[in-house]
Specification:
alpha/beta; about 30% strand
Length: about 240
């Protein structure tokens, strides 16, 4: 059964949502991120996807204090992405309470370093960030498109031991127009052992149902929550979270 994972994106210590990763589209939700996290935990959600957008922009992790507060005051297992570029960054993320580090840019530009981290921390604690636009991998907070195709990128790293892949279709992120179900089906057909985490486009319960029917094991969703498009109580009941 699909496991839904709520998302918290952070800029300047506040929850925000972007459209297609464009910082100019920033919508700020003026509540403490910890309040959102506690609500998710109270409803029975087990995991949280946290994106350090300040870190993605500044090339090093920034919002470790928020990570630590959420890890300390809830039982949520947190995957943390954004700004993880060096050894100090990834160590700080785990020391701050994250269960997983989501890493994309380093896996593109410094694959050998990524392989070292995979060996040091274990595949069960690292998520490959596969953000895609027009079939190619995008990096550095989606500001730069690489020359690697999505499929080749996943293939290379799964051969090296990756098991968890977070795939975001950038064209759908924040658009509330439905997830890229066909793309996720293709990935699962090509890589049947992949623990795929879908991301981007979820607008309501019907989208979660479609992903579940497609056999996708996990999905990250955020804007539908903050825009009141989805009832978290209904999600928790439908997917047996409590």
């Amino acid at each position: 059964m699909l496991q839904p994972i709520p998302a918290i994106d952070i800029i300047d210590g506040k929850c925000v949502r972007l459209t297609k990763g464009d910082y100019a589209t920033k919508m700020v939700y003026d509540r403490d991120p910890l309040e959102f996290a506690k609500r998710f935990a109270d409803l029975g959600f087990k995991r949280l996807h946290m994106v350090d957008l300040d870190g993605a922009r500044s090339q090093h992790v920034v919002n470790l204090d928020i990570l630590n507060r959420i890890a300390t005051h809830t039982d949520l297992q947190i995957d943390y992405g954004g700004g993880i570029k060096g050894d100090d960054d990834i160590k700080a993320v785990y020391d701050g309470g994250a269960s997983w580090a989501t890493i994309g840019s380093v896996a593109v530009r410094e694959p050998h370093k990524f392989d070292q981290w995979l060996k040091a921390y274990g595949a069960q604690h690292i998520i490959l960030g596969a953000d895609t636009r027009d079939g190619y991998i995008s990096i550095n907070g989606w500001k730069e498109d690489s020359q690697q195709t999505l499929i080749d990128f996943i293939d290379r790293h799964m051969r090296s031991g990756v098991t968890h892949v977070l795939c975001t279709d950038i064209s759908r992120d924040g658009m509330l127009k439905g997830p890229a179900v066909a793309l996720y089906k293709e990935i699962l057909q090509r890589f049947p052992t992949c623990q795929l985490i879908a991301s981007g486009g979820v607008s309501g319960m019907a989208d979660l149902e479609a992903l579940d029917e497609a056999g996708v094991p996990y999905v990250v969703f955020g804007k539908a929550i903050y825009e009141g498009r989805i009832d978290l109580n209904e999600v928790a009941k439908r997917f047996n979270l409590n």
